[in-house]
Structure formats: C-alpha cells, structure tokens
Amino acid sequence: MYVVLSTLILLLIVSTCILLLFNLRNRLGLAPLYILLGGVQYFQINIEYIEPYKILGEFPVFPQSIVLFSAMLFAVLLLYIKEGVVSARTLIIAILISSLFIIGLFEISALQDYFIRNANRTEDINFTLFPNLNFKIFFIGTFLLFFDFVLLTSIYQFLISKIHKEHYFLILFLSLWLVLIFDAFTFHTVLFVGTSKYTASLIGNFIAKTLSAIIFSLILYIYLKYIDKVFETTSFIANQNREVLSILNYKKKYLDLKIEKEISEKKISAQYEKTLTSISDGITTLDSNWCYTYVNKQAGKFLGRTPESLKGKHIWTEFPNVVSLSFYNACINAFKSQEANISVEYFSSYGKWFENRIYPTPDGLTIYFTDITEKKEIEKALVESEAFNKGILSSLTAHIAVIDKTGEVLAVNKAWNDYSVKNGGHNYESSSVGSNYIEVCQKSISEGDQLSQNILDGLRSVLNQETNHFEIEYPCHYKDEKHWFSMHVEPFGTESDKLVISHNNITQLKIAEEKLERTNLKLKEAQRMAKLGNWEYNPVTKEIFFSDEIYQIFELDKNSSQDLYASYKSKCIPKDQDALDKLVSNAIKNETGYTIGYYIKSNKIGQKYIQEVGEIVKDENSNVFLKGTIQDITKDKLISDELTQSNEELLKINTELDRFVYSASHDLRSPLTSLQGLIQVLEMQIDTSAKVDKEPIKLMSQTIDKMDKFIADILDYSLNTRKELTHEKINFEALIKSSWEDLKYMDLDYRPKLTLDINQTVDFLSDPKRVSIILNNLISNAFKYHDKNKTNHFINIFIVVDGEKVVIDIEDNGIGIKEEYVDKIFDMFHRATTLSTGSGMGLYIVKETIEKLKGSIHVESKFEKGTKFSIKIPNS
Amino acid sequence: MKLKEIMLVDDNSIDNYVSKIVVEKENFTETITVKSSAIEALDYLKAKTDNFPELIFLDIKMPIMDGFEFLLEFSKFTVDKKENSAIVMLSSSINNADMEAASNEQHVIDYLSKPLSKDKLAKVFDILIQKK
Questions:
Q1: Residue A736 falls within a domain, yes or no?
Q2: What is its EC number (chain A) (predicted)?
Q3: Chain B partners within 8 Å of A662 (Cβ)
Q4: What is the pLDDT of residues A662-687, one digit of tens each?
Q5: Cβ B92–A672 below 8 Å, yes or no?
Q6: Is residue A108 part of a domain?
Q7: String of b and e for A151-178 (b: at least 16 CB within 10 Å)?
Q8: Spatial CB neighbours of A767, under 8 Å, sequence gap ≥ 6
Q9: How many domains does chain A have?
C-alpha cells in the first residue's frame, strides 16, 4: 500500500515539476526542463536494479522506473504539442545527451576512485568497469528510448489527423499507452525472452504502464484543456497538419519552407507595395502621434508632395489648412472612437473634392482618399441640368402635358397649371395631373362640341401611329377677350404609347394676321384708287410678280395659264419696249433705279400711258432682281400733253408779242426820231437868222420827247411783265453814269450836283435791264423835278451792297411831293404835279419792276423840300 | 482831224437828210456818201478801188437786208480794205437785244439812238481819236 502511495507521490511530483517548468518557459526558457528530464533519465537508469515490487503478489515491476519513463514521454508529448517539432526534438536530444554525459561522468569518477585505491594499495580491489551499468541494457534502453520518442510523436500525429478532436483524451492516452506497451514488450523480449521471469515481468509492466498511461494522459489532458488554454487556437490546428514523421524530417522541410517563405514574402511585399502604389486611391497611414508612417504614390500626388518627404512628418503641421475642415474632426473621432469614419469634403487649397475613408488601426489610422472632383462636377452639372430643364419647362408659355394611351395626364408644366387655375376649368385645359384628358374630350363631345371631336380624332391618330404629328388651331374667347390657341400633339420620345400635348397661345399672331389682312386690303384699295400696282421681276428666270392692280391696268386675267411675261410683252408697243429694255439693263449694270413712261395697248380705250418706276434689289445671295411700281397715268398724260401744247402755244404767242412790241415801238419811234432830227436841222438853220421866236420849235421837240418817253415806258412795262429774270453781275457806277449821260441831253441848261457813293465789297447779281429801268426812272425824276427857286441843286445817290441785298437811296432837293399824293405816286397814270411832263407810267413801272425782283421801295418826301427814295433789292 | 469819207446807210431818206446836214455842219469830212439801202452800200464798197470810208453810220431796220446782215457781208472784205473803217450803229430801236448784238460786232464802235446830233457826233469822234 505504501508502495502505491509513494509511487503516486513520485508521479505527482515529477509531473508537477515538468508542467511547472513548462508553464514558466516564457520566463525561464526550456533549459531547466531539459536538465530536469536529463536528471530523471539518469535516475531511471540507475534504479534498474533495485528490488522490484510485485503487483498482485506475483508480477514484478519497478514502479519508479515506470513513472519516470512515462514522465519523459509525457514531457516529450507536451513539448511536441505545445512547442512544436523542434522543441520536442531538442528535448529528445537533450535527454539522450544528458543521460550519456552523466553516465560518462559517473563512470570516469568511479574509474578514478579505483586507480586511487590501487595506488594506495590499501586493499585489493577487483576492478569492474561500470559496475552499476549493464551495457546491454543501457544501449538497448537508450536506443529504445529514442525510438519510443519517435514512435510517440508519430502515433500522436497519426491519431490527431484521424480522430476527431473531441476525443482528445483518447488520442493522448492511446499515444502514451501504445508507446509504453511497445517499449515494455520490446525491452522484455530483447532482454528476458526465454527466462523464467519474462512472462510475469511482462504482465506486471503491462498493468503498471497502462495505469501510468491513464494517469499521465489524464494530467496532460487537464493541463491542455484547462490550464494552458490553447485548444482552439492555431497551434493546435497546425498540429493536425504536421506530417506523421515530422519529428524526423522536419528540419529539411523547415529550411525549404523558410527559403520558400522568404521568396513568397518578398513577392507578396512587392505585390503589396505595387498594389498600394498603383491603386488609384491615396493611402496614408498615421501613427498614434499623427505622424505619417506610410504614404503611397497616389497620395503624394494628391497632396503635392513626395511620399518620402512626408514620412515621419506630423500631419497637422504639414497641412495646417486642413485643421479647419470637417476632415480633421473625422480623423479625431475615428481615432478616439476606434470606428471607421468617412468624410466627403471640398479641399479648397487643392481645388478638389476628396472622399476620405478613415480606418483606425491599433497603432494609429489608415486613411484612404479618392479624388471625386470629377464625380462631384458631374453631379453638380446633372443637378444644374435638371434645374435647367425644369426651369425651361416652367418658363415656357406653352401649356405642355404628357398623357398615356388611356388619356391619363402624367405630367404638366407650370403654364398648364396656371392656365387651368386662371381659366377655372375650361373644356380642354382644366385637366391636371391624374385627370383623364380623353374623358374630358368625350364629355365635351357629348355636350355637342365639334372641336373636341376633332381633337380626340387627332389624339387617336397619333396614338395609333397613323401620323406622328397632329396640329389644330382653335379660337377660345373668354371674358370678352378674343384668344386663339394652336394645339400640337406628338409622341413622347420613342414611347409611342405616351403623347406630348402642347397648347400655344397664338392670339398675338392671329391679331397680327388679321391686321396684316386689313392692311393688305387697304393697300389693295389704295392701289386700285391710285391705279398703281407693284411688281417684282427676276431678269434671269423672267419670273414676274404683279399685284392685282397691275393685272387691271394691263387688262390681263390673273387666273390665265398663259405665261405672264409673254402676256405682258404682248401688251407693250415694241418701240417703247426697246427703250425700256435698254433702261433696265443699264439699271442692272449700274445698280441704279429708273423711271420711264410708255404707252401700252388697251382694248377699252385704245392705249394707255403708264409710268414705271424700277429699283434694283439684291437678295441675301446677291442675286439681282427688280422691284417697282406701275401706274396708269393716262389721264395725267393727257392733261400734261395738253399743258405742254398750251405752253408751246403761249411761248409762241409771247415771242410774237415781243416781236410786235419791238416792232411797234420801233415803227412808232422811227417817225418821232426823224421829226426830232428835222427840228434839229431847223434850229441849226434858223440859228443864223435873227428875230425868230424859237419857242414853238422847242415845244415841238418837248412834245416829241414826251411821246418817245411814253413809248419807252410801254416797252419797259411790257418787258417787265413778260421777260424772265436774269442773273448777271451789276455795275452800279456804269449804269448810273450811262443814265446820267442820257439825261444831260434832256436839259442842256440844268446841271445839278451829283454825289455817288457806292459801298460794295461783294458782287451784286440781279437782272441788269430791270435794275437799269428802276435807276433810270428814279434818277430822271430827281433830275426833271428840280426846284427852279433853288440855286444849289443836288442829287445824292448812296448804294450799300452786301451778300443779301443792295440798299439804294436817291435823294434830291427838288420840288417834293405834296403829302396827300405821296400814297398815290406809284399808281398807274398818276401824276402828282402839274409840272409833270411824263405819262404817269414811270413810278408804276418802278414799283412793278421792284416787286418782280422781290425788292421793296420806300419814299420820304416833303413838299418844296425834296424827296428821298429808298429801295432794297435782294442779291440773287 | 478831218476824215476823207463818211458813209450814211439808211432807207429813211429824212434821217439821211438830217444826218448829212449835221455831219456837213460840223465839217468833219471831205466827202459824204449816202446810200439808201444795205445792198447799194455793199455794191459801192465792192466797186470801190481805194480806201473804204473811215466812218459808216448804219441803220439796223432796213428792207431786204438789215444792218446786221450788212455787217456779216462787211466782215468778208479783206482786212487791208477795211482796216481803217469803223461803223456806228444809228437806229431808232431801243431794243436791248439790238444793242447787245451790235456791241458784239467786231467793227462797230458805238450805238447811237436817232437822231444824230452835234453832241453825239462829237462823242463818236472822241472814240475814233482814242482808237487811233
């Protein structure tokens, strides 16, 4: 009983020590465990020959040996499971080495002890090398031990890959038990086969080792399951994947794998780098101090920096502008909450939109960012475009609706709704979204509305694809106002089962059309009344347009199928046409207009006279054509012809009259001048014989002069009334001198003082004959009617010429005019003095002539003091 | 100064008579030739071998050939014949057109209104003297 108890205590101590040292492997390493197990091995070798314990009284076993051996297997299996092949193998080798080494040391010290004793010769000793060691047993045992280890790991590995891990205790037990049984069998067979104790020892070992296997596997199971909890972890799973004989061939494979791993790691890291670099997103990683630990190429590009220059730099120091953005807060939040965060924001300093995806990592943040500027711009453009379309639709004045094939109104624009509201439910317009357009039409048809019928027919024809467009104009008068609408129906895009209906208000157009029509009527009326028509003519194609009135003038049938140009030509007189053709071709060449009058044939009145006005017009392609008017001026022509004839006759009469006046004046004067000549001769002859009264001769001469003057006056008067005005340069000095010379012959005894003052800087143009008639009369009056009671007679003539007029003052100190006669002196045949020798024609002629020249005359006179005539004649 | 010959051309014999007396009275010339028509005067000049009259008083209005027609014929004479000959129009016409036409004639030196008088003759002589 004590034996069993002490064995159990031994077992517990050993297993506890193994597990304790193993559990402390992270702090102490595995060396203490190796040493412990080496020690155990040595101990086990050296206790082989102690007294065996007999189980059940007959089967001898060595309990210490069994416990220690099992403990070693237990340790190897533990290491194999928990630390892998390498550690287990190291342990195996360590155990073997330590056992060999310790045995060696003991044997050498024993040999040394023998030699010392021999030298002292204190006693004779029979030397036995390795007295405690049975070599056979040792080598077989050691070899077997090594083999057991290999077997243990192999069996474990085999079982773990075949048996479900829920039966893990079974795996552990079987591994240990099979190895222990194998060892016992092999050991006993090799050493004790054929001996008396073979069978009993074998049975004893079987029983003891089975018990040992149960206990150790139980301890191991408990340890693995509850103390070192790695059951479910990767190391356990990795165990399943080891090869069965991995304990032997692991090394080579390990090296191969290591090389392979390095290669693939390199590959992966290169791939990884390449991926990170080539990815279109910017990627940066930050450590917990906000410093960059990684920046990919794309991120560098976005940030405008090289990745190398950013590594290790503090993000908020490098990019201080960003701190004001929500990106900053997103980063802080992600870091604090350890939750991923996304921020989409416009980075004004880069002029770009970025989407930042911020992921927390245990030691910082990873930020992926994408340039979404283009996307944002497209979004913006899309929004704008939608707003644009919506805006356009709303701003259209046309009422637009989309209906489906059942007539349901699917969409309307603003104008449509506005109209419905304004019009308070008209037949065609009151239907808003959701109502049925066709039903509204049908309702109106049932009320007898023909227009609705037409509209419905049109809608259906488009719906049935009989036509792709329907259009109708209709009046819609409401609230005492006239309105017209034009309705258009078209398929909605390519979906032919939907229709777009639009109503356009064409009231203005209609009003304009009506106005135009009225204007056209007025024009036509005006043309009819004026007998004037307008035409257009293309000289290349000979195409002609005539307004209605021209058809009337030419007496042509508007509806005739005959060629208009030929019809027109047939009405013309060839002689006139040649002239017209020449004129037209000249006009085209010189791009000028023309006016021509010519005769055309008329069935009604023989011939008509028309006036044609033409103009060259160029259209937008620089094609030349003619536009103009034709007016029937037959009546005017007749009148003007008559007038021309009358004028010609009048001219002839005038000329004849002129000739007559001259002829008469000459013929009348001729005898008078002869008489004057005879009187002169008579005077000369009687001059010599004295005492003859000369008075009668003198009176005869005066009478003849008076007659002559009268004839001259009549001639002047006749000249003034009929003769055209002329415009010639007037030499006042010469005119007055000549007039003065003539007067001197009139009265040889009278010599008044003449003062002539001419102030002239510009030429004076007028009719010289008429000016001389005026001056001759006034000067001769001043000369004739001098006051015989005065001695210092004078005549002052002042002439002032400027660009506009001449002012002539003729002043004398003659007999003057009595006040009561001053107003009458310009009357025909009025003579204001008994002294007058004239006909009473002179001043009348002066006044008439001045009026003819559009001048004026003014007289100041004082009886017996003198007279002053002031005249103004315009400078023409 | 005394001229060799003055010719009077006028169809009116009274005027010729008056003019002849006035010219004679003033004693300006050695000979006075009186012709009662332009044709007669032309014939005379054509037949004449020595110098033309130095002064011719010419009426305008005459039957068959008037004064201006005479002037046209006169202008056809060679220069050497007429170079010392001057013509004065002596007319009872006060038609401006006549006066203008006369002033444009090469040989006409003055236009006088009938009747010829001592003063008018003196004026003509002044012009002649100036011309020479």
A1: yes
A2: 2.7.13.3
A3: 93, 95, 97
A4: 888 888 888 998 998 999 888 888 76
A5: yes
A6: yes
A7: bbbbbbbbbbeeeeeeebbebbbbbbbb
A8: A725, A726, A727, A728, A853
A9: 6
* C-alpha A806 chain-centroid distance: 75
One domain for residues A360 and A410? no
How many angstroms separate the CA of residue A848 from the nearest CA in chain B? 19
- Domain count of the fold of chain B: 1
Assess contact for A367 and A331: CB atoms under 8 A: yes
Q: Which residue has the higher pLDDT, A52 or A253?
A: A52
Give A134's Cβ-side CA count (13 Å radius): 10
Host domain of residue B56: 3-131
Strands B55-58 and B86-91: parallel
pLDDT of residue A385: 84
A470-475 and A292-295: which strand pairing?
A: unpaired
**A633 SS3 class:** coil
Residue A591 and residue A643 in one domain:
no
Q: Mind spelling out the 3-state secondary structure of A800-847?
A: EECCCEEEEEEEECCCCCCHHHHCCCCCCCCCCCCCCCCCCCHHHHHH
Average the pLDDT over A610-639 and give the result: 89
CATH code at A358? Answer: 3.30.450.20
Chain B residue numbers touching A678 (CB-CB < 8 A)? 14, 18
**Which residues pair with residue A856 across a beta bridge?**
A872
Instruction: Report the SS3 class of residue B92.
Output: coil
Query: pLDDT tier at A427 (50, 70, 90 boundaries)?
Result: very low
Nearest CB to A666: which of B19, B22, B61?
Answer: B61
Residues 6+ apart with CB under 8 A from A157: A239, A242, A243, A244, A245, A246
Of A61, A35, A44, A9, the closest CA to residue A215 belongs to: A9
Is the Cβ–Cβ distance between A468 and A490 less than 8 Å?
yes
Test A674 with B115 for CB contact under 8 angstroms: yes
The whole-angstrom distance between residue A536's C-alpha and the CA centroid of its chain comes to 44
Of B17, B18, B94, the CB nearest to A712: B94
B93 touches chain A (CB under 8 A): yes
A532 close to A557: Cβ distance less than 8 angstroms? no
Residue A436 tokens read as 């049925």
Is B84 exposed, middle or buried, given 0-12, 13-18 or 19+ CB atoms closer than 10 A?
Answer: middle
| Dist CA B45 CA A743 (whole Å) | 37
SS3 B83: coil
A255 lies in some domain:
no
Pair of tokens at residue A745: 């012959």
- Residue A368's nearest CA partner among A274, A279, A282 is A282
Query: What CATH number is attached to the domain comprising A868?
Result: 3.30.565.10
- Other CB atoms within a 10 A radius of the CB of residue A358 amount to 22
Residue whose entry in the numeric block shows the structure tokens 């209104």: B113
Domain that holds residue A159: 2-244
Contacts of residue A375, defined as CB under 8 A and 6 or more positions apart, other chains included, come to A353
ipTM: 0.87
Q: Are residues A373 and A407 in the same domain?
A: no
Per-residue model confidence as pLDDT tens digits over A549-581: 899 898 888 888 888 888 888 888 888 888 888
Amino acid at A383: V
Query: By the 8 A CB rule, do A627 and A642 touch?
Result: no
Say which residues have a Cβ less than 8 Å from residue A286's Cβ, sequence separation at least 6.
A292, A293, A315, A364, A365, A366, A367
Interchain proximity B92–A680, CB inside 8 Å: no
